[in-house]
Amino acid sequence: MTIHLRPSPTAATGSTAIYDRMESRVRSYSRAMPRQFTRAEGVWMYDDRGGRYLDFLSGCSSLNYGHNHPVLKQALLEYIAGDGITHSLDLHTEAKAAFLEALENLILRPRGLEYRAMFTGPTGTNAVEAALKLARKVTGRSHIIAFTNGFHGMTLGSLACTGNAGKRAGAGVPLGYVSHEPYDGYYGPDVDTAELLERRLSDSSSGLDAPAAILVEAVQGEGGLRAASPEWLRRIAEIAKWHGALLILDDIQAGCGRTNGFFSFDNMGFTPDMVTMAKSLSGMGLPFALTLLRPELDQWAPGEHNGTFRGNNHAFVTAAAALQHFWADGRFAADVRLRGEQLDRRLEAMAAEFGFSTRGRGMMRGLDVGSGERAAEIARTAFRDGLLIETSGADDEVLKVLAPLTIEEDVFDLGLDILERAIRGVLGQAGGVAA
Questions:
Q1: pLDDT tens-digit readout, 374-422
Q2: Which domain holds residue 353?
Q3: Cα diameter, the chain
């Protein structure tokens, strides 16, 4: 029996006919990057036309360690070759134990954290849904406070906490029990939005219900790379505690080293009650989501929240290998900080030259170019020159650099050179100045 792992040889190279014919219109990334990709290694992706692309998309931060990292790939190949357990619901397996031990010994204990690990369904929105559900169960309250421009997922509970009107419109039902308070800097640098929140919660006539939880991102990924200050985040943590709410830190995109520490809140002087993780947690793009929670919050009855794909052992294997390889000491984190400084220098120089502004923190940074139309044209131009890059923000006005954390200095400069040329070319077509 012949098993075909590639399209039929009768199909034209580079043809998108099968996708146009069979796949839902809901697809998005493939519209901006209309190629059939065939393989990937490190920071590079290759298509079936012989094209090579430097990846500044990284699976929307699901591939922080690049494509097919040899250490992670070898760990998975050996596990599969040994007939290791693939699927296990929430049964005990060696792969799960190895991950939990690595998480405890390499990540939690060095930071003085004592979280319990709750394995949810396989995507980030599952981790957020579990956290919201548990917060409501523990506190007996229903209201959630989220923030302007926040993004937390596309299932109904997470979507209710998401700010973007276009994404919310897809729900088809009212999205309630959530209020969206102003994020840090929403009204400019002179307005303390944490103080506004405290005032509203302390005023019994404000109309703001006592919350079960405050849900926040330290850096807003889909919301345009807005980064909250450590001082503001500490204040939000204090407000949550004073008002009997749980603080949920959404680290799905900003975690796993993307914003200078393993967690985006590392060394900021506060500890969330719960942390949601996914994306690069598996280290290799395998579906894997996790909700971390303080032990006293673990008030679930057995089976009260579950999911068929809680036991992705292949993801446990690569996640454990990633923690052991990259986070056993401080060398990788130091390298990531250097790349973040390189990115900061280059983006600040571009912003100064073209009249833009920079956003973000660490290796989660980008350029606000003023409009979604301009950002899209720059991204298309960069793609034609071999660079994969996406946009974010309320109007997709931010060019978002999510290069693999493992990228080498000279290759990083190569990609940033392509981005700079694309900007210069688009602005040249538009008269050479930023509006």
A1: 999 999 999 999 999 999 999 999 999 999 999 999 999 999 999 999 9
A2: 17-22+48-55+330-429
A3: 72
